[in-house]
Here is the input.
Amino acid sequence: MIKAIQRSISNAWRWAYRKWDSIGSDRRIQVIAGDTLPPKLPRRDLVLARDGDEDWCVGMQCPCGCGMNIELLVIAEAKPRWDVVIDSNQRPTLRPSVWVQRGCRSHFWLRDGRVFWCD
Here is the structure.
């Protein structure tokens, strides 16, 4: 019974956070020098680690609000890997979708700086 109540509260919180997040401003991307991400990532924006002219990885906090840091490799040699496209307004698009395999198990697309949930 208690677990069911906790699950209901967690689901309600996640729904409310996603709704609130969807009306916020578009996510932007910050480019940093180097091949690693900083230990603290911005709450909303993404960080792209670039060494010279080679992109290494993209980092972000999970958009569900759980606080988990997500690191996605974008170098050609990596598997799995993601493609990142940045428009003229610094809004990122990621391909393929992002599916967190542990913790909150969020699954979403990021297009033009907006999160689109898969569930």
Remarks:
- Residues 2-117 form one domain.
- The helical segments are 2-22.
- The radius of gyration is 15 Å.
- Residues 2-22 form the longest helix (21 residues).
